[in-house]
Structure formats: C-alpha cells, structure tokens
Write a structure and sequence with these properties.
alpha+beta; set domain protein methyltransferase, domain 1; set domain protein methyltransferase, domain 2; 2 domains; four-stranded antiparallel sheet; 10% strand; SETD3_SET; cytoplasm; actin binding; SET_dom; SETD3
Length: 589
C-alpha cells in the first residue's frame, strides 16, 4: 500500500506541453480502441495480441512524454501535511507515524504500545474520495450523461482522482500528493518482465488487465475530447495513458467499498491514511461505523512501540496480490492456483451429472482452486471430480431414493467415497491434469529458485519469478497428494476393503465443516453449462458498525444492489470488464 516511487520526479506542478496535434493523437487512440474492442484473441494468440496493443500504447506514450502532472519534491516531503490535514478534519493521528520500511515501502509505525483489538485509527467520511463525491465534482456533468461511466464505479473513481490531482485547490491534494508516482502492478512492467509470466496460470489475467486498461483509456480519451459535458474538465488538455495507468493502479490497490450515508447501498472509496497499512495474515479488522459516519480500524495484534502496524487485506492468492496490489507475499496462507474444469454437453451422462451438481450447488463448468495448504482441494472441487467420474448407476444413487438428497451433502467429504473405483478415477484425472499444467512452464522449480538468487534481477522480474515458482509449488504439492490418494484407494480396492457405512446420522459429522455442501433442488435440465448458482451470504447483515472492509477486494458485510444486466448496452457490457478482479463484490469473497 505504501510502495516507494521509483520514478524520476518531473519538476513541475502542472502539465507540460509537447508538439502533438490533437488530430494525430485521435487517430492513434482510435486505432487502439478498435484493436482492443475487437473480439478476444483466439487461443494461443493472446501474447501476439498483447504485443500489438502494447506497441500502439508505446507510440501514444512516446508522443505524450512530458505531458503528465507530477508534483515537486519527494514523496516523503508530503507526509507531514497529510497528517496535519487528517488531524484538522477529524481523523485519529495519535499513536502512529508514516515510516519507510524499506522493501515493504511506506507503512504505519506504532509510536506507543497498542493492544490487540484496540481502536487506533478512524477516518471520517468527508475525507474519503468516493463515487458520490465524484458525482458532485467537476466530473459530475459527464458522469450524468455517459452510461458507461455510470456502469463503472471504479473508472469513475480513477477519473475523479485525476481531476482532483490537476486541481491546485483540491480538498484532497494533501492526500493525493502522498500517493506513489509509480506502482508495481503488471501495468508498469516492461515487456520482458511480463514475458517471465508466460506459462503461468496468472498470465491471462495480466494480459487481460493490460488490454482492458488500454481499451478504457482509448474510450475515455475520445469521450473527454468530444463530449460537450467534458468541456470544463482539467483532463481535456492533458489526459495521457500514463495518467490513466497511474489512476487505475491507485484505485486498484487502494479502493474499498463503504456504505452510502443512508446505509442502504455501497459506494467505492479511497481512504486516506488507512491505506498506508501493509498486509499480514490475520483477520479483517476494519469496519464502518454508521452512527459516527467513519471508517474504523482496530489493531490486528499487540504492537510494541516502533513496530509496524499491519492489517489483513483478505483471502487473496499471490496472483491476485501481484496483479491487483503490486506485491508478492511470501507467507501467504491463502495462496492458490486456478484450474478450469467442465463437463461437456456432448457426454452421454451430461444431464444426470448436471443435475447432481446442481443439487450440490456446483456449476457444470467453473474455475476451481488448488490450495497451498495440507489439503490442496476444496470440498467443491472434490464433489465436482466425484460427479465427473461417476458411472450411471452411481449417479442414480445420488438422484433417486430416500437417501439421495442426504447423500449429496457428503460429496465434498473425504470420509464418504462414492466407490473405490470412483476415487481412483478422480485422483488419476487430477494427477494427469496437474501434470499437464506443470509441463506448460518453460522452467523448472529448481531453475526458478536458482534465478532468484541473482542480485541483478529487477524488482518486477523477481516478483514474476516468485509468483511462477509459487504456482509450481502448489501444483507439485497437488500432484504428490493426488498420487498418494490414488495409491491408497488402489490398495483399498485390491484388498476388498468395505466402503465406510453411510447413514443419515453421518450428516451430523459434517456440520460446521467446509465439507458440507448446500442442497439446491432443481428440475432436470434447468442448469445450463457455465451458469453460476447464486447463494445468499449467510453472514451478510446490515448493522451499525458491521461493515467489514478489505483493501482491493471489496469485502463488506453487505451485498451490493444488483444491476439489471438488460439495462446495459453491448458496449457497456464489453467495457465493463473492470479494472480487474479487485473490483469484485462481496458475494465473490
């Protein structure tokens, strides 16, 4: 959250000028928009398309050199003003100070002992930059007339940030001056640094992030230059790709959802001072107090004087941290690798398998995860694989009869195999699939470990290789686990071991465990391939001071109001590919 800037500061407080005609720039931007708005690349052509888009972006960046707004002085110079501004407007500023922690960047240091769960930081609403404040700003007229901007709160916040940065009299300038001039998200990687991610499970998200950001920039550049409602925007004279990349990364690494003033909905916000906290494993300790109308944070643990104060960003993988926050977290207890699986509609038993999965609340095609912990697969993935490998008579047992519904609940439990043959098949399949994923990497784990020992690696290259290696470790662990499970169940089959007895009281064993699956009753054929089954979040509630927040991942104890997809135009649906995964809603937590 508090990364140091590696950019050379331009000694100016206003945009410089360069000899680029508006017509020339509009031609380039239109070409970029057309390239990014065409149908997605065919399989295997993603890297080629990325190079083409990047080439166009670099042409634009070259012509825009020197046009971006940058502040005088070092970032450190602005922190005292941030603290005095925060104090003057009702924030808590006692007990901590902004400090440079070297490799971790800037963070909060305790200036006294702080006890676990002690309320040490609060930020009132008036200090927050939100979508609501954007609507009331100079951006408001354009927001009111552009449906795409209305559909993309994250972009609204990014453009709001840029408009305020360009305004010498902005209320938020003390905060904006302390933001990094550059980030470590892949949007800032050099081409050879991105190339280090080829073969990883994360690379598609990285390439999509770049494509979407370039498309958004091209669209909003044209909009700002041509729409009558943008005539008074400070961006009209200077809106560079580097500006937008910076604003996107500022929002992507810092934004959170907070309740609106009436507490009935949520809005995106940037939260000054609090967003200086760095990440550590733990629990969410930040909430929103509706009565006092402020963001509040309690201590994650006991802190001694001069120790760094951390918060927990949420259960995110290292791929998510790298892509959306710009760092790799070595001790990540929630790291995972995505694996996409589905049942083909052409399969003879598709309808039966789809129905069993539907009753278990699992789609017939989905992205699952392999985890870094001792049990590498979730209850949902285990259940999917069991159904995927079921024979017709086994499917009937889970669809028909008095115990069928109760048996569905046990699909995600290691304690209740469908059959020894089914277990052997599913672990063999998982072994094969994981082995194929490992073969896609161009280097081995040993080679990556050796490369990381080199001191001359750039920070971005090191991060990319760390992510690549972490993925391999998870896959290798899953491969070893799958092999061990397969051998175990082959032995059970060969020895004629009886299956564990199933009876209805067995369900009691699954209460309050991750292995229990929800039961959803559907008519046969009701679930379409790829269709997600929606659930209410059981812990979601709307109470005073009950809004739990997580930087970047938008987790609150409140489900955002759904937007009717039919109200979006086609271009809105295309444009609304977010500033990436960090703009997910609470339901995706």
């Amino acid at each position: 959250m508090g990364k140091k800037s590696r950019v050379k500061i331009q000694k100016s407080g206003s945009a410089a000028t360069t000899s680029v005609s508006s017509k020339e720039m509009m031609i380039l931007v239109s070409e970029l928009l057309q390239k990014c708005s065409s149908g997605g690349p065919t399989a295997g052509k993603e890297w080629e398309e990325y190079l083409q888009i990047r080439g166009l972006v670099e042409k634009i960046r070259k012509k825009q050199r020197g046009m971006s707004v940058e502040f005088e002085g070092r970032r450190d110079d602005h922190f005292p003003h941030l603290m005095s501004w925060a104090r003057d407007h009702g924030a808590s500023c006692e007990g901590f100070a902004v400090t440079n922690f070297g490799a971790e960047g800037y963070g909060l240091r305790a200036t006294r002992d702080i006890k676990a769960e002690e309320l040490f930081l609060w930020i009132p609403r008036k200090m927050l930059m939100t979508v609501e404040s954007a609507k009331k700003s100079v951006l408001g007229p354009l927001y009111n007339q552009d449906r795409i901007l209305q559909a993309m709160d994250n972009v609204t916040l990014a453009l709001h940030l840029l408009c305020e940065r360009a305004n010498p009299a902005s209320f938020w300038l003390p905060y904006i001056r302390t933001l990094p001039q550059e980030y470590d998200t892949p949007l800032f990687y050099e081409q050879d640094e991105v190339q280090l991610l080829q073969g990883t499970q994360a690379v598609q998200d990285v390439l999509s992030q770049y494509r979407n950001t370039a498309r958004q920039y091209a669209y909003f550049y044209k909009l700002i230059q041509t729409h009558p409602a943008s005539s008074k925007l400070p961006l009209k004279d200077s809106f560079t790709f580097d500006d937008y990349r910076w604003a996107v990364s500022s929002v992507m690494t810092r934004q959170n959802q907070i309740p609106t003033e009436d507490g009935r909905q949520v809005t995106l916000a940037l939260i000054p001072l609090w967003d200086m906290c760095n990440h550590r494993n733990g629990l969410i300790t930040t909430g929103y107090n509706l009565e006092d109308d402020r963001c509040e944070c309690v201590a994650l643990q006991d802190y001694k004087k001069n120790e760094q104060i951390y918060i927990f960003y949420g259960t995110r993988s290292n791929a998510e941290f790298v892509i959306h926050n710009g760092f790799f977290y070595q001790e990540n207890a929630h790291d995972q690798v995505k694996i996409k699986l589905g049942i083909s509609k052409s399969e003879r038993l598709y309808a039966m398998k789809a129905e069993v999965l539907a009753r278990a609340g699992i789609p017939v095609s989905s992205i699952f995860a392999l985890y870094c912990n001792e049990q590498p697969i979730s209850a949902q993935l285990l259940a999917f694989l069991r159904v995927f490998c079921m024979k017709e008579e086994e499917l009937r047992d889970y669809l028909l009869g008095g115990h069928a519904i109760n048996k569905i609940v046990t699909l995600g439990s290691m304690e209740f195999p469908v059959s020894w043959d089914n277990e052997i098949k599913l672990w063999t399949f998982l072994e094969t699939r994981v082995a194929l994923l490992l073969k896609a990497y161009k280097t081995t784990s040993e080679e990556d470990s050796s490369t990381l020992e080199k001191s001359e690696l750039s920070p971005h290259s090191r991060m990319a290789i760390q992510l690549r290696l972490a993925e391999k470790w998870i896959l290798e662990k899953a491969l070893a686990s799958g092999r061990a499970k397969r051998v175990h169940f082959q032995k059970q089959l060969e020895e004629g071991a009886p299956l564990p007895d199933y009876h209805e009281s067995s369900i009691a064993l699954l209460e309050n465990t991750d292995a229990k699956l929800p039961i959803i009753l559907h008519k046969l054929g009701e679930i379409q391939e790829g269709q997600e089954i929606q659930f209410e979040e059981t812990g979601a509630r709307v109470e005073n001071a009950a809004f739990e927040m997580d930087p970047g991942a938008n987790r609150l104890a409140l489900k955002p109001e759904p937007r009717d997809p039919s109200e979006e135009t086609n271009i809105e649906a295309e444009m609304n590919l977010e500033l990436e995964n960090s703009f997910c809603c609470f339901m995706a937590a």
